[in-house]
Amino acid sequence: DADVTQTPRNRITKTGKRIMLECSQTKGHDRMYWYRQDPGLGLRLIYYSFDVKDINKGEISDGYSVSRQAQAKFSLSLESAIPNQTALYFCATGTAMNEKLFFGSGTQLSVL
Amino acid sequence: AQSVSQHNHHVILSEAASLELGCNYSYGGTVNLFWYVQYPGQHLQLLLKYFSGDPLVKGIKGFEAEFIKSKFSFNLRKPSVQWSDTAEYFCAVNAQGAGSYQLTFGKGTKLSVIP
C-alpha cells in the first residue's frame, strides 16, 4: 500500500460545486501539506499542518479550506469550485526537519 | 520570503550528453536545498538534498548537485543522461530558523532525452 494515499485520483466537476479531496498517510508524520501543480508554475503551497491543532495558510489559500481530522488525515475542500482551480493537487507529508517530503500520487481536478 | 529560480523551462538532450540544470535562490540566511524529480504520470520523489557539510551532494541515479553559497546556487548535474531521465525536475529551498514552514519550489525544468 502507498504511504500517502489521495482520493479521488481524478475528478470532474462543475463551477460552484463543493469538492473535497482526501489524503491519508501511514508514515506517522506530523506534518502534512497540500500543493497544487500547474504547467509552468511548479508547485504552490495551499495549506499546511504541523499537527492536528495546527493549520496554516500557504501561498495560495484563497478559495480553499482544510481539515486535519487526525494525524493521518488531511482533507482539502473547494467550497465553490471555479475553472481556474483546475489543476493537479498533491498531498505530502514530512518530518519536523523537513528532510524529505513524501508525496501522494495526486488528484487531477477539472472544473468546468 | 525566499524565492527559487530555475533558468530553463525545457531542456532537450541526446542520450549520453551531459546535463546541468540551474537553480538559484534568494534568501539571506541558512537554507536547506533539494532537488525533486517527477517522472511522467508520477508524483514527486526526492533526488538529493543538501543540509550542511560537503557542498557537493550525490543523489540517486548518478545525479549530483553543488551548493555554491556565494552564488546562491544549487545546480543539478549528471555526466551522461539516459532516456529514462526524461522527467520534470524541481529545485526547492527551505529556509532554516524561519519559525514557520517555508519550503518553496521552483517552477520546474522539463528534461527530454532523445534516444
Descriptive notes:
The complex is a heterodimer of chains A (112) and B (115). Chain A is mostly beta strands. Chain A contains no helices and 11 strands. In chain A, strands 2, 4, 5, 6, 9, 10 and 11 form a 7-stranded mixed sheet that branches. The mean pLDDT of chain A is 93. The model of chain B has no long low-confidence stretch (mean pLDDT 91). Chain B has strands at residues 3-6, 10-14, 19-21, 23-26, 31-38, 45-50, 56-58, 64-68, 73-78, 87-95, 103-105, 109-114. Chain B has no helices and 12 strands. Chain B starts with a strand and ends with a strand. With 115 residues, chain B is an all-beta fold. Chain B is 0% helix and 54% strand. Chain B is globular. In chain B, the strands form 3 sheets. In chain B, strands 2, 5, 6, 10, 11 and 12 form a 6-stranded mixed sheet that branches. Chain B has a 4-stranded antiparallel sheet with strand order 3-9-8-7, with no helix packed on it. In chain B, strands 1-4 form a two-stranded antiparallel ribbon. Chain A binds chain B through residues 31, 33, 35, 40-45, 48, 50, 56, 90, 92, 98-101, 103-106, and chain B through 6, 9, 32, 34, 36, 42-46, 49, 51, 90, 94, 100-101, 103-108.
Let me know the number of strands of chain B: 12
Secondary-structure element order of chain A, N to C: EEEEEEEEEEE
Mean pLDDT value of chain B: 91
Number of helices of chain A: 0
End-to-end Cα distance of chain B, whole Å, is: 41 Å
How does the major sheet of chain A shape up? 7 strands, mixed
